[in-house]
Amino acid sequence: MDESKVLGIFKESDALLEGHFKLTSGKHSDIYYEKFMILKRPRLCEKVCAALAQRFEKDKVELVVGPTTGGVIIAYEVARYLGVDAIYAEPAEGGKGRVFKRGFHIDEGTRVLIVDDVLTTGTSIVEVIELVKSYKANIVGIGLFLDRSGGKIKFDYPLQPLATVTANAWEPDACPLCKKGIPISQRGSRKFQKA
Ligand SMILES: [Zn+2]
Q1: Between 147 and which of 4, 59, 102, 164 could a Cys-Cys bridge form, CB atoms 3.0 to 4.6 Å apart?
Q2: Which CATH number characterizes residue 136's domain?
Q3: Does some domain include residue 40?
Q4: Residues around ligand 1, an ion, CB closer than 5 A
């Protein structure tokens, strides 16, 4: 499944929208990505996760790790495709970093694939990397549904986003869309700017 096919699925399912949106950070953006428009559709989610798993088929993945919340579904489905287990990284008490709960553990040297839905600032992926490294595991790659940083964020491991877009984000008082008087959260056109 190539990038244009993936972007087509994201757009048709209203996961990827263009307009004028307020992000959880408080910033305004011209692109909105709602991963749960994919994750709520099991048959579609299965296809997208299979495409992601195929990118790592030759990497002898032994375990898939994903962060809560959306990453749980993706890790499960990718692991199912690859025929291995999945475990889930949860926020640590106090909100700093990630931990494994529920008796989850990684044996030293295990070949781990990290997956997540969307890359925006990279914070949650960095937290998962730190957690997996603390078990002396062998991280073989990072798989994502969408990189919305336009490819700007890099890691020390092979990164495979199914699709990449460049989303602009502005402080509200610097937002050109506000200046143009475009109402916020408008979900009009489904066009998007490709990286
Ligand atoms: Zn705005």
Answers
A1: 164
A2: 3.40.50.2020
A3: yes
A4: 28, 175, 177-178
Q: How far is the CA of 29 from the centre of ligand 1 (A)?
A: 7
Tens of pLDDT, residue by residue over 67-93, are 999 999 999 999 999 999 999 999 999
Is 164 a member of any domain? yes
Query: pLDDT tens, 105-162?
Result: 999 999 999 999 999 888 889 999 999 999 999 999 999 999 999 999 999 999 999 9
Question: Does residue 87 sit within a domain?
Answer: yes
The whole-model pTM stands at: 0.89
Note the helical H segments in the chain. 3-12, 36-39, 42-54, 70-82, 123-133, 176-179
Number of domains the chain is built from: 1
Q: Is residue 111 part of a domain?
A: yes
How far, in Å, from the CA of 152 to the mean position of ligand 1?
23
Task: Give the distance (Å) from ligand 1 centre to CA of residue 20.
Answer: 6
Tell whether the torsion through CA atoms of 147, 152, 154 and 160 is positive or negative.
positive
